[in-house]
Amino acid sequence: MDNRKVILGSYLGASILAWFLTRSSFAYLYLNFYQIRRLPGINAIREGLPLLIGATVFLVLLKHAHVNVVMEEVVSELKKVTWPSRDDVVKSTTVVIICILIASFILAGFDLMWGKLITFLLHV
């Protein structure tokens, strides 16, 4: 895959994230503050400003030379990474889940023991 496609995809993802966060923030303000709902043209602002911010983020990332250089280096370094095989990932994940379960049972046992001890001491 071409580096430029990956970079443009990441820029698009960043702009979608900026759009979503801005839109969610405006929706929160609109729903929770009555004074904001009464402002003239708030619906146009509520829908238009997040689009403008998302497009601005995309264009700034696209036109900024230093960001493009850094992204080129990141993509080229990620191509050098040796990714583990599916079997290695499954084995490592299984070991982690088993260790978490063992630690959870040990902590649950200590919690139960200390809870019984505290309850016994408080009722004496």
In brief, what are we looking at here?
By secondary structure, this protein is mainly α.
- Find the structural class using helix and strand composition: mainly alpha
Largest sheet composition: none
Helix/strand order: HHHHH
Unreliable runs, pLDDT <50, ≥5 residues?
none
Instruction: State the shape.
Output: flat
In the residues, how many domains can be counted?
2
Per DSSP E runs of 2 or more residues, the count of β-strands stands at 0
Q: In whole angstroms, how far apart are the ends? A: 71 Å
Indicate the proportion of strand residues.
Answer: under 5%
- Count of helices? 5
Helix content: over 70%
> Mean pLDDT score, rounded?
92
Q: Give the oligomeric state of the chains in this entry, treating copies of one chain as homo and distinct chains as hetero.
A: single chain
Radius of gyration: 26 Å
Please specify the SSE layout and strand pairing.
Blueprint: H1 3-32, H2 34-37, H3 42-63, H4 65-79, H5 86-123
Helix pairs in contact: 1-3, 1-4
Protein model, in words:
The protein has 124 residues and is mostly helical. It folds into 2 domains: 1-81; 83-124. Helices cover 88% and strands 0% of the residues. The protein has 5 helices and no strands. The longest helix is centred in the last third of the chain and has 38 residues, at 86-123. The model has no long low-confidence stretch (mean pLDDT 92).
